[in-house]
Amino acid sequence: MAAPGPEVAPDDVALLDRLAARIVELRLETPAILALETARPLSLVAGQAMVFFEPIVQSLFRLPDYRRFASLVERRECLGVLVDRIEARAGERGAAAAPPSPTRRTR
Q: What DSSP assignment string belongs to 47-61?
């Protein structure tokens, strides 16, 4: 059995929660979850690729938490936290958008 990895820091959870909120806001939760679950075995490679492309990304976009997110991507447990946050946010949005259930009138 493998030993569990270190827990995710509260600041990192807050970053993942902001990212999940933005993904759900853009209604991209299904492709995001699919991509995250598919890429989970390659999380180390994905994190290193993000570090490699950082100069290009930083020149095009202002992303202050990019480097921290790149280091989180390398940890598989963080990807699980992100998927959980996306699903929770999507569930909240779905519950808020659902029409109220009709009530029966009794005569």
A: HHHHHHTHHHHHHHS
Burial class (CB in 10 A: 0-12, 13-18, 19+), 40: middle
Phi-psi region of 97 (alpha: psi -120 to 50; beta: other; left: phi over 0): alpha
List C-alpha distances in Å: 74 to 40, 46, 60: 9, 7, 23
DSSP 98: S
H-assigned helices in 1-107: 10-25, 29-39, 43-52, 54-60, 66-73, 76-97
Q: How many Cβ atoms sit within 10 Å of the Cβ of residue 17?
A: 16
* Cβ atoms of 69 and 58 closer than 8 Å: no
Residue 10 has pLDDT above 60, yes or no: yes
- Which tokens hold the place of 54? 């950082």
> Per residue in 55-77, pLDDT tens?
988 888 778 888 888 889 888 89
Q: Is the pTM of this model over 0.70?
A: yes
Question: Would you state the pLDDT for residue 67?
Answer: 87
